[in-house]
C-alpha cells in the first residue's frame, strides 16, 4: 500500500505544528521521520491516524484521496499505530485490549473473547512474541506491552504501521529485536513509518529518511548519509556533537552510597543493594533504560522514598532518614527528570519558581512573610545570567519553552553553594541550542569542585558528560566503567550483564558484534 | 525476550515485602469491640426474630437466639478471624476474600442480635425490617446504578441527589395531571435525563470540573423543585392540591414466590419499579462485564485516550452513559412519590442521593456490590426508625451515621481496596 | 494529556492529585465581565421562571392574541415586583412600615457574615488543591463546640466570647482536619470524606441535642440559650441583627489574603495546590500542608458556626448551618477563590438572602428562586465559553494548546 501526504498543515491557534508537509511512503518501505523533540513528527502522525484533523492538505492511499474523521477510519484504511505512550488499558487483559474497538461478539453484543485470544496467539506465534492473551497488561514489562500494541495493529490487518519513538523505552538489545520484527513485517509487505530522533537507529533500519524541523520538511536523505550531515539537517545548523570538556580532576570521595535498597509501596524492589561513590570535581553518569531504578536512585538521595535501607553519606553526614528540606539544606542541588511535573509550578511566575525551594530562607522571606522585592531582583539576575528567553520574570513558567524551563530549574538549583549536584535527564525535550548551554553549566559546576551525578537514558549524553559511567538494570548496579567505554559494552550492561561478563562477551566475539552494527 | 523474561519473575517474587496492616488492625479493633460490647456489656435473655407474619400461608417458627451466648460466639469468631487475617497478611501479603466476608457477616449478625436483645421487647419482625428497608434501598440502588453508569465511563456523578429529587417531583406532577402512574414514571426518567444532560453538557462539553457541576446541580434542582412546589403544587382547587395527588403504582405480588418467608414479602411483593430494579442490577452487571458495550465503557473510564485511538468516541460514550444514568436515577426518584409516599414534599430525598454515592463507592463501582451496599444501608436506616420506638442499647443516630462512616473507612483503605476507574473525574480533551 | 497517561499507568492513590491542579486553574481564570454577565443571565432565567409561574401572567396570556400588551405588562409587573422587592429588601426599602425594616442593607450584612467565613474556608482549601465540600459539617461542629461553652459555662464578658470563638474554631478545625488527615495519610478523596462528614455531623448534633446538650425545659431537640456574655455585641444596637462577627469576618478576609499572597505558608499551599509533586521535590511537606490547610479551613468554617450561634441564632439546633455550607461553595466559586472576591461574593449572596425573604413576603415569590439564581450564576461562571457564546464575545485570552 502506498501512502502519500500532500501539503499537510496543522495549526493550534497561532502555533503551526505542521507546515505544508509532503511525504510519500512506498509500499513495503521503512520510512523514517527524523526530527528533534517538538519538530512536529507526532502531530503529523496523529493527523495521519485520524486523531487530529488537518487544517489544510490531503492524505492519499494508493493514489486515492481519503478523509479520516477519527482513528476508526484510519484503521479501516489499513493504518496502524504504536504510540510513544502505550494506548493500553492497564486493568484489562491482553485479549481485552486487542479486542477493544474491534470486538467480535455473539448475538446481542456479548463479547466473544475466545476469538480474540486465538488471533493473539496466532500473531504471537507468527512473530515469536510469546504473549499470553490472558495476562493483565499492568503486570507486563514495557517490552511486552509494546508487542501487545503491535499485535493490536496486526490483528486489524494494518498495511501501514506507524511506530512513534518505539525505542525510547527499550534496551539496545530489545531495540535490535524490534528492528528484526520491523524487517519481518516489511518482508510481509507492510509499510512502516518509523519516528525517531536517534540518528543511529534511523540509519540502521531505513529505506528512506525524511527530516522535519519546526514543522516543515527540510529534506530527505539516504540511509548512507553521514551522522553529522543528518544532525545538521535536523538541527538547522552545523552541530558540534562533542562537548569541549577538560579531563576531570577528581578530589576526595565526599559522596558515598552503600548498600542502598529501595522498596515501592507495593513491595517491589526498586533498587537492590547499590554501592558507589562520587568524588569532588567528577561527573558520574548513570545509564540505563528508562525504569530500571535511576529515578528511584535520585529520589532516594533527595529523601522522597519511605522504604529505604542502606546509607547515603554526603561530606560525612548521613542523608537517609532526612526530609527533603534537610537534604536540600545539606547542600544538594536537584534537577528532577520531569521538569513540568516535579521541577516547576507551571502557573507560578518565573520569579516564584526561582525560589521554589529557597522561599523559607532569608532574604527571600522573614518571619514567615515573603519579600517580593528581593525575589523579583533575584529573578532579574538569574534570567540574565542563564539567558532565559522571556518577556518578564513575572510571566508564568508554563509560557516558557522546554529549554528555557530547564534553564530556570538549573538556575535555581545552582544558585546556592552545593556539595552535590544531581540532574536527571537534564536535556530531555530541549532544543539543541539549550543543550549546549546546559551541558556547559553542568561541566562548570564540576570544574568548581562539586561532585555531580547525571542520569540519562540517552547514551550520547552519558558518553559526553560522564567521567565515569554507572549502569543500572532492574534496580541493580551492573558496574561502573570509565567514561570512554564503548557503546556495545554499555548496551550489554543495560541489558543486564555485569560489567565483567559484558566485557568478556565483547572480547569473545568482537568480530560478530562488529558485523551486526552497520 | 531474554531481558523481559529475566525481569518479570524477580518483580513478582519481591512483591510481598511491604504489607498494609490497615485491615487486620480494623478487624482487631472490631473484635475487641465485640468482646467488650457483645459479651461484657451484652444483654441477657433472648433476641427473637419473627420470620412469618400472622397472615402468611407458610408459618415458620421464630428464630430465638440467646443474646449473651451468641455474643460470645461472635466475639470468639471475630478474634479468630482477626488473628487469621494478621497471619495471612504476614505470610502471603494479602487477606483472602472469605475471611473478610465471613468477618463482615458475623459482625453484622452479632450487632443485630445485640441490638434486638437490648430492646425492651427483645424481638423484631424480619419482614418488617426488610420491607421497610426496601423503601430506602430501592432509591439507593437506582441512585448508585446511575453512579455506576456515569463513573464507569469516567464522569463523577455527585448530582445523584438532584436526579432523584427531579424524578420524584416530576413523577408526582405528571402522575397527578394525567392520572396515569406510568406517565409519571416515564416523565421522571426524562427529568433525570434532564439533570444528566446539564451534567454532561457542563462537564463534557464545557469541561467544567465534574464535582462542581454536581454540587451546583443539587442546589439548582433543590431550588427549582422547591420553587415550583410552592408555586404549583401548593395551589389548591376546591381545597385539594390537584397537582400533588399522584396516582400510585400498585404492588404486584408474584404468585408462589411472594409466599416465601421474609424473601417473598421483601422482593416479590413490589411495584413495577422494584422488579425493574432487580432486572436492572443484573442487566447492568452483565452489560458492563460481558458485552462489547461494557468493555468500551470501562475502557473510556480507565484510559480514554486508548479508547479514542481504537476508534471509540470517548465523549459521546460518556454523554450517552451520563444520560442513561439520569434516566435510571429518575426512575428511582419516581419511587418516592409513586410508591413510597403519596405526594411530593420539599427536599424529600433527604440526602439519599449521597448515601447512594456512598453505596457506589462501598460497592466498589460494581452494580452488584452497590446493590448489596444499598441493602445494608437500607437495613441500617430502617433499623434506626424501628428502634426509635423501642428502648435500645444504641442510639439511632449512630446507625444513621453507619453508611457514611463505612464509606470513609472504605475510601481510606480500611475496608478492602476501593479503586475508582482511573480516569474518573478527568475530562477528556483530544490532543 | 501526558498526566492522564501517567495516572493510568500508576494505580496508586496520588494518581488523583492532578485533579486539584486542574480545579485551581479552572477557578482562578476568567474575568470580571464574565462574572457580571453570568449574574445577569442567571437573573434573567430566574425572571422567566417567576413570570411563567405567576397566575396573573397565565391569566393574561389566555387572551394574548386579543391584547398582547396585557400579557407583556403582566410579565413586567411580575418580574419587576419580585426583583424590586428583592432589591429593596437587600438594600433600602422606603415603603417598609418601620424604619428598622427600611434598612435591609444591615440584614444583608448579617446574612453575609457566616458566608464570608465559610466562603473563605472553601477558598483557602481550593488554593491548596482541596475541594472542601464539608463546610456544612464544619459549621455544625463549630456551632456545637461554641454552643457547649456558650450556654454550658458562665464567664466574664469578653473572656467568654473569646472562649466561644476559640471553641468554635476548634470544632470546625477538628472536622476539617479529619478530612485533611485522611487525605494526607491514606489518599482518601477529600470530596467523598467531607460529604460523608457532613451527614455524620448532623447525626452527631441530633444525638447531642437529645442528650448532653438538650435544653431541659424544652421537648424539642434544641439547646438552651447562649449566655449573654457569650454573644457577639450588636453593632448598631438592638434594632438590627448585624453583630461584631462581621468585624471578625473582615479581619479574617485580611488575614487569609495575607496568608495566601504574602506568607511562606501560603506560598506552600499554592504550590501544593498547583503542583503537589513539584512542591514535594522542592522540600515542602505535602501531607502536612493538606492537614494544616484543612485545619485552618475547618476553623474558618467553624467561625461561621460561631457567627450563627453567637450572632443570630443564640441557641443550637440541627438546622444551625442552614444552607450556608453549600452556599459557601458557590460563594468561593463566584469569588474566583480569591479572599476579597469571596468577600464581595458573600455580600452579594447575603443580599440575595435578605432580599429573598422580603421577596417572599412582599411579592409572593418563594425564596427558593434565590437558590436557583445562585446555582445558575456559578454554572455560568464556571463555563465562560457558554457566556461568550450567549453574548457573542470574542475570546481575548490565549488558550494554551498542548500538542
Automatic annotation (TrEMBL), chain A:
InterPro entries, per database record: AAA+_ATPase, ABC_carbohydrate_import_ATPase, ABC_transporter-like_ATP-bd, ABC_transporter-like_CS, P-loop_NTPase
Record lineage: Bacteria, Bacillati, Actinomycetota, Actinomycetes, Micrococcales
GO molecular function, one term: ATP binding
Keyword Nucleotide-binding applies: yes
Gene3D superfamilies: P-loop containing nucleotide triphosphate hydrolases
Protein origin, superkingdom: Bacteria
ABC transporter domain span: 3-239, 255-499
SMART domains cross-referenced by the UniProt entry: AAA (SM00382)
Keywords: ATP-binding, Nucleotide-binding
Descriptive protein name: ABC transporter ATP-binding protein
Short name of any one Pfam family annotated for the protein: ABC_tran
Alphabetized PANTHER family for the sequence: CARBOHYDRATE TRANSPORT ATP-BINDING PROTEIN MG119-RELATED (PTHR43790), GUANOSINE IMPORT ATP-BINDING PROTEIN NUPO (PTHR43790:SF4)
TrEMBL record, chain B:
UniProt subcellular location: Cell membrane
Domain of life: Bacteria
Pfam families: BPD_transp_2
Transmembrane intervals: 25-43, 63-83, 95-117, 123-142, 154-175, 181-204, 211-229, 272-289, 319-342, 372-392, 398-416
Major site of localization recorded for this protein: membrane
Membrane-protein topology: Multi-pass membrane protein
Keywords per UniProt: Cell membrane, Membrane, Transmembrane, Transmembrane helix
Entry protein name: ABC transporter permease
Native species: Arthrobacter cryoconiti
From TrEMBL, chain C:
Polar residues bias spans: 1-10
Cell compartment(s), UniProt: Cell membrane
UniProt membrane topology term: Multi-pass membrane protein
Alphabetized UniProt keyword annotations: Cell membrane, Membrane, Transmembrane, Transmembrane helix
CDD domains associated with the record: TM_PBP1_transp_TpRbsC_like
Pfam families: BPD_transp_2
Protein name: ABC transporter permease
Source species of the chain: Arthrobacter cryoconiti
Amino acid at each position: 500500500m502506498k501512502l502519500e501526504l500532500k501539503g499537510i498543515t496543522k495549526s493550534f491557534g497561532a502555533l503551526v505544528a505542521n507546515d505544508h508537509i509532503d511525504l510519500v511512503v512506498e509500499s513495503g518501505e521503512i520510512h523514517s521521520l527524523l526530527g528533534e523533540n517538538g519538530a512536529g513528527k507526532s502531530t503529523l502522525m496523529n493527523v495521519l491516524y485520524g486523531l487530529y484533523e488537518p487544517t489544510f492538505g490531503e492524505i492519499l492511499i494508493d493514489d486515492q484521496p481519503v478523509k479520516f474523521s477519527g482513528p476508526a477510519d484510519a484503521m479501516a484504511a489499513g493504518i496502524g499505530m504504536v504510540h510513544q505512550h502505550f494506548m493500553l488499558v492497564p486493568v484489562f487483559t491482553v485479549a481485552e485490549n486487542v479486542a477493544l474497538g474491534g470486538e467480535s461478539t455473539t448475538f446481542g453484543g456479548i463479547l466473544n473473547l475466545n476469538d480474540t485470544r486465538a488471533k493473539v496467539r496466532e500473531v504471537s506465534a507468527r512473530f515469536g512474541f510469546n504473549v499470553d492473551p490472558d495476562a493483565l497488561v499492568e503486570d507486563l514489562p514495557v517490552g511486552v506491552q509494546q508487542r501487545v500494541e503491535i499485535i493490536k495493529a496486526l490483528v486489524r490487518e494494518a498495511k501501514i504501521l506507524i511506530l512513534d519513538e518505539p525505542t525510547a523505552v527499550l534496551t539496545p538489545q530489545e531495540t535490535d529485536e524490534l528492528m528484526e520484527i520491523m524487517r519481518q513485517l516489511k518482508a510481509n509487505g507492510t509499510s512502516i513509518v518509523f519516528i525517531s530522533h536517534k540518528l543511529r537507529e534511523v540509519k540502521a533500519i531505513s529505506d528512506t529518511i525524511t527530516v522535519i524541523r519546526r514543522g516543515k520538511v527540510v529534506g530527505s536523505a539516504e540511509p548512507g548519509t553521514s551522522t553529522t550531515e543528518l544532525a545538521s539537517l535536523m538541527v538547522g545548523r552545523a552541530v558540534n556533537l562533542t562537548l569541549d570538556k577538560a579531563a576531570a580532576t577528581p578530589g576526595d570521595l565526599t559522596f558515598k552510597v552503600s548498600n542502598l535498597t529501595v522498596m515501592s509501596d507495593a513491595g517491589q524492589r526498586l533498587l537492590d543493594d547499590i554501592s558507589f561513590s562520587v568524588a569532588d570535581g567528577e561527573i558520574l553518569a548513570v545509564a540505563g533504560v528508562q525504569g530500571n531504578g535511576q529515578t528511584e536512585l535520585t529520589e532516594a538521595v533527595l529523601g522522597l522514598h519511605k522504604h529505604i535501607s542502606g546509607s547515603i553519606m554526603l561530606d560525612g553526614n548521613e542523608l537517609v532518614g532526612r526530609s527533603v528540606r534537610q537534604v536540600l539544606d545539606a547542600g544538594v542541588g536537584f534537577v528532577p527528570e520531569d521538569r513540568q511535573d516535579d521541577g516547576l509550578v507551571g502557573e507560578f511566575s518565573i520569579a516564584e519558581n526561582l525560589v521554589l525551594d529557597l522561599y523559607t530562607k532569608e532574604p527571600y522571606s522573614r518571619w514567615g512573610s515573603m519579600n517580593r522585592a528581593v525575589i523579583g531582583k533575584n529573578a532579574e539576575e538569574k534570567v540574565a545570567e542563564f539567558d532565559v528567553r522571556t518577556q518578564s520574570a513575572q510571566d508564568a513558567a508554563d509560557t516558557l519553552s522546554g529549554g528555557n524551563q530547564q534553564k530556570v530549574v538549573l538556575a535555581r538549583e545552582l544558585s546556592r553553594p552545593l556539595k552535590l549536584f544531581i540532574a536527571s535527564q537534564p536535556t530531555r525535550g530541549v532544543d539543541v541550542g539549550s543543550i549546549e548551554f546546559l551541558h556547559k553549566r553542568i561541566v562548570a559546576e564540576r570544574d568548581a569542585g562539586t561532585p555531580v551525578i547525571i542520569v540519562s537514558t540517552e547514551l550520547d549524553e552519558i558518553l559526553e558528560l560522564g567521567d565515569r559511567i554507572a549502569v543500572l538494570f532492574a534496580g541493580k548496579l551492573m558496574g561502573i566503567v570509565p567514561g570512554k567505554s564503548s557503546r556495545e559494552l554499555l548496551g550489554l550492561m543495560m541489558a543486564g550483564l555485569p560489567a565483567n561478563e559484558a566485557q568478556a562477551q565483547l572480547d569473545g566475539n568482537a568480530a560478530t558484534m562488529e558485523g551486526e552494527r552497520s | 525476550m531474554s531481558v523481559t523474561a529475566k525481569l518479570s519473575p524477580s518483580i513478582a517474587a519481591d512483591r510481598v515485602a511491604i504489607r498494609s496492616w490497615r485491615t487486620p488492625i480494623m478487624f482487631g479493633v472490631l473484635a475487641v469491640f465485640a468482646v467488650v460490647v457483645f459479651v461484657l456489656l451484652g444483654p441477657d435473655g433472648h433476641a427473637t426474630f419473627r420470620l412469618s407474619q400472622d397472615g402468611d400461608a407458610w408459618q415458620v417458627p421464630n428464630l430465638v437466639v440467646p443474646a449473651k451466648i451468641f455474643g460470645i460466639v461472635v466475639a470468639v469468631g471475630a478474634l479468630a478471624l482477626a488473628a487469621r487475617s494478621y497471619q495471612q497478611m504476614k505470610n502471603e501479603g494479602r487477606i483472602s476474600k472469605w475471611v473478610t466476608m465471613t468477618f463482615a457477616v458475623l459482625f453484622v449478625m452479632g450487632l443485630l442480635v445485640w441490638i434486638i436483645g437490648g430492646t425492651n421487647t427483645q424481638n423484631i419482625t424480619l419482614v418488617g425490617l426488610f420491607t421497610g428497608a426496601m423503601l430506602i434501598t430501592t432509591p439507593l440502588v437506582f441512585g448508585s446504578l446511575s453512579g455506576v453508569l456515569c463513573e464507569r465511563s469516567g464522569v463523577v456523578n455527585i448530582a445523584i441527589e438532584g436526579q432523584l429529587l427531579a424524578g420524584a417531583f416530576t413523577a408526582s406532577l405528571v402522575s397527578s395531571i394525567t392520572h396515569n402512574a406510568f406517565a409519571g414514571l416515564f416523565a421522571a426518567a426524562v427529568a433525570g435525563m434532564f439533570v444528566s444532560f446539564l451534567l454532561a453538557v457542563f462537564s463534557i462539553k464545557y469541561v467544567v470540573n465534574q464535582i462542581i457541576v454536581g454540587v451546583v446541580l443539587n442546589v439548582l434542582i433543590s431550588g427549582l423543585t422547591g420553587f415550583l412546589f410552592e408555586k404549583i403544587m401548593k395551589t389548591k382547587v376546591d381545597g385539594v392540591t390537584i397537582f400533588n395527588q399522584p396516582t400510585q403504582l400498585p404492588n404486584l405480588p408474584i404468585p408462589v414466590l411472594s409466599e416465601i418467608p421474609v424473601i417473598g414479602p421483601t422482593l416479590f411483593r413490589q411495584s413495577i419499579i422494584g422488579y425493574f430494579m432487580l432486572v436492572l442490577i443484573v442487566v447492568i452487571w452483565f452489560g458492563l462485564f460481558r458485552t462489547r458495550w461494557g468493555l468500551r465503557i470501562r475502557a473510556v473510564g480507565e484510559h480514554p485516550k486508548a479508547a479514542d485511538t481504537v476508534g471509540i468516541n470517548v465523549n459521546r460514550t460518556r454523554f450517552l452513559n451520563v444520560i442513561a444514568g439520569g434516566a435510571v436515577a429518575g426512575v428511582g426518584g419516581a419511587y418516592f412519590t409513586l410508591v413510597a409516599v403519596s405526594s411530593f414534599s420539599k427536599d424529600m430525598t433527604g440526602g439519599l442521593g449521597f448515601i447512594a454515592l456512598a453505596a457506589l463507592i462501598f460497592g466498589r463501582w460494581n452494580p452488584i456490590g452497590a446493590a448489596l451496599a444499598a441493602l445494608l444501608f437500607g437495613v441500617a436506616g430502617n433499623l434506626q426508625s424501628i428502634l426509635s420506638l423501642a428502648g435500645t442499647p444504641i442510639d439511632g443516630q449512630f446507625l444513621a451515621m453507619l453508611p457514611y462512616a463505612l464509606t470513609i473507612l472504605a475510601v481510606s483503605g480500611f475496608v478492602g481496596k476501593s479503586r475508582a476507574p482511573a480516569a474518573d473525574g478527568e475530562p477528556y480533551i483530544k490532543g | 494529556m501526558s498526566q492522564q497517561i501517567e495516572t493510568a499507568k500508576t494505580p496508586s492513590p496520588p494518581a488523583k492529585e492532578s485533579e486539584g491542579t486542574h480545579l485551581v486553574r479552572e477557578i482562578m481564570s476568567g474575568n470580571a465581565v464574565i462574572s457580571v454577565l453570568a449574574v445577569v443571565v442567571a437573573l434573567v432565567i430566574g425572571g422567566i421562571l417567576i413570570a411563567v409561574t405567576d397566575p396573573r401572567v397565565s391569566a393574561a396570556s389566555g387572551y394574548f392574541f386579543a391584547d398582547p400588551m396585557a400579557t407583556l405588562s403582566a410579565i413586567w409587573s411580575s418580574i419587576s415586583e419580585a426583583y424590586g422587592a428583592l432589591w429593596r429588601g437587600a438594600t433600602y426599602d422606603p415603603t417598609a412600615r418601620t424604619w428598622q425594616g427600611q434598612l435591609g442593607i444591615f440584614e444583608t450584612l448579617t446574612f453575609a457574615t457566616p458566608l464570608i467565613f465559610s466562603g473563605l474556608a472553601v477558598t483557602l482549601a481550593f488554593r491548596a488543591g482541596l475541594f472542601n465540600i464539608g463546610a456544612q459539617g464544619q459549621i455544625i461542629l463549630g456551632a456545637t463546640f461554641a454552643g457547649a461553652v456558650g450556654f454550658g459555662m458562665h464567664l466574664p464578658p469578653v473572656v467568654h466570647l473569646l472562649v466561644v470563638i476559640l471553641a468554635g474554631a476548634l470544632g470546625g478545625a477538628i472536622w476539617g482536619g479529619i478530612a485533611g488527615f485522611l487525605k494526607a495519610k491514606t489518599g482518601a478523596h477529600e470530596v467523598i470524606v467531607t460529604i460523608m462528614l457532613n451527614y455524620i455531623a448532623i447525626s452527631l448534633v441530633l444525638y447531642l441535642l437529645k442528650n448532653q446538650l438538650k435544653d431541659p425545659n424544652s421537648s424539642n431537640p434544641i439547646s438552651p440559650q447562649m449566655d449573654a456574655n457569650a454573644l457577639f455585641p450588636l453593632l448598631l444596637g438592638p434594632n438590627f441583627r448585624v453583630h461584631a462577627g462581621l468585624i471578625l469576618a473582615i479581619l479574617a478576609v485580611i488575614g487569609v489574603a495575607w496568608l495566601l499572597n504574602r506568607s511562606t505558608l501560603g506560598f506552600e499551599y499554592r504550590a501544593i495546590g498547583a503542583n503537589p509533586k513539584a512542591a514535594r521535590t522542592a522540600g515542602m511537606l505535602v501531607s502536612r500542608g493538606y492537614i494544616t490547610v484543612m485545619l485552618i479551613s475547618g476553623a474558618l468554617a467553624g467561625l461561621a458556626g460561631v457567627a450563627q450561634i453567637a450572632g443570630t441564632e443564640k441557641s443550637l439546633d440541627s438546622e444551625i448551618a442552614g444552607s450556608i455550607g453549600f452556599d459557601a461553595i458557590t460563594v468561593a466559586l463566584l469569588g474566583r477563590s480569591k479572599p476579597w472576591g469571596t468577600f464581595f461574593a458573600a455580600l452579594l449572596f447575603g443580599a440575595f438572602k435578605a432580599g429573598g425573604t422580603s421577596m417572599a413576603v412582599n411579592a409572593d415569590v418563594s425564596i427558593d428562586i434565590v437558590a436557583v439564581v445562585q446555582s445558575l450564576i456559578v454554572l455560568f461562571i464556571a463555563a465562560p465559553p457558554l457566556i461568550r457564546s450567549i453574548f457573542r464575545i470574542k475570546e481575548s485570552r490565549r488558550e494554551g494548546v498542548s500538542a
